[in-house]
Amino acid sequence: MTSVKEFRVAEPATADALGRGRFVFTDAYSVFDWGRMPDPIPRKGASLCTMGAYNFERLEAAGVPTHYRGVVDPDAERTGAEGPDADRAVPEDAIVDLEAASAPPTEMAIELTQVPDLPYLGGGDGYDYEAYHEAADGNYLIPLEVVFRNTVPIGSSLRDRRDPGDVGLTVAEWPDEAIELPEPVVEFSTKYEEKDRYLTREEADRIAGVASIADLESIALAVNRVVTERAEDAGFDHEDGKIECLYVDGEIRVADVVGTFDENRFAYDGQEVSKEVVRQWYKRNDPEWVAAVSAAKETVAERDVADWRTLCTDDPVQLPDRVLEAVSAMYAAGANAYTGRDLFDAPAIDEAVDGVRDL
Fold first, then answer.
1. CATH 3.30.470.20 given to domain 5-357
2. Largest CB tally within 10 Å, which of 70, 86, 130, 171?
């Protein structure tokens, strides 16, 4: 389901009912949609699980429906086979609120919905969303990412797709600096296509099936408010983010994970504190691979294949140890600061941010 979280199913979803399962957050990371990169970032998985759980609990308190059930206590008893690759069963009493966890968790318990196959038609016909929704039967993961933006940084794709006036700005041209939007902007992009693309509201409405685009936008804005308020209280600037949602019994619920340094972009004292740090490192230090990725994504549109990675002519280099250590500290210290709890043995957020400032 995703390249950096592992997925466990306890009870599969059916057309009539949600199932149960969990995310296992690993220390793997992905940039430029590549999938798992060559080396893990220590403590990243626990940091993201912690932030995601914290945000889900705040969303529930705000009345926003989600698929979150709790985190798995790291010290809980388990049954089943042992070993690094074993999927050991988790008893219900091991699923707790974040505050009750004995240590930073790496597993999140969730409700599951159906995720049908999305057939690739090829020949310029794209993907068969009608087949997806026929198989979904009214209980499904909406095949969209709903993106919300509070700022427009330099290099944002929004600058290529929209004029400043379209997003409430009074300038004729985009300025050569990051700009804060007067009101958050919501956009829709594809979820399961090999090359993500932004959609018109009409395209998004078709791809969403029976789920309402207006309701998706409303939920995205509610999530943005909750995350932005907490970020401001903790000293962060919340720049943008995304949500994924499921549809069941006529209701839209927030799914996947919300408000982490991978799903959203945050800044602290003018420095990016998110996966963007690693993305920018690769742009500066492995431009050949970044260019090869871009070329492959462009080429796939002209070929009768879905996976652009098969066309990529280069592989990413590994991160140096000093970069891994600095980014690991950023994730852990950022999670501490965002939640207001000293869950990780990490430097203060100011020190950790300074550590990634000049990578």
1. yes
2. 70
